[in-house]
Amino acid sequence: MTSTEFAGFKYEHGDAASRSTARRWFTGISLALALLIIATRIIAFPVGLFTLLVPVIAWYSVSRQLLLGPRYLLCGNTIIYYANVKRVTFSRTAGTLLVQSNSGKSLSLQREKFPTKARKADKIAKNKAAKFDKVADKLIEKVRKAAPGANLIGV
Predict the structure, then answer these.
(1) What is the pLDDT of residue 127?
(2) Is residue 31 a contact partner of residue 55, using CB atoms and an 8 Å limit?
(3) Between residues 131 and 149, the one the model is more confident about
(4) Euclidean distance between CA atoms 66 and 9, whole angstroms
């Protein structure tokens, strides 16, 4: 069985960030080691307390992403299977893309939630628009392939 390839895009969604199993294990083990070091006083207390930063940084350094897979979309705690999409409403001028599935789940992507490292206002707007358009085009293409009967509005 081949591994699933996901296209990842940084996106500031409102859901909790998804953490991998490896990150959870690393955080748990490093927290246990830090507490063991502090309890047994292997290292002086102020330095031992500093070891608690490793699990805290590992836990909170997760970037929020939008993942486009071959068959489904992951955004935080929301999973949308492309074959179950009944409507896609796209507005390039407003910078929104609304995906609604048969089960009632919906996901609204907004252009302003795509982060950029640009500093000038015109470059920020240009980069956000480019990322949004790229994600929207890929998403619409995948929905067209998986659910040919889906209602595509504004596409």
Answers:
(1) 92
(2) yes
(3) 131
(4) 5
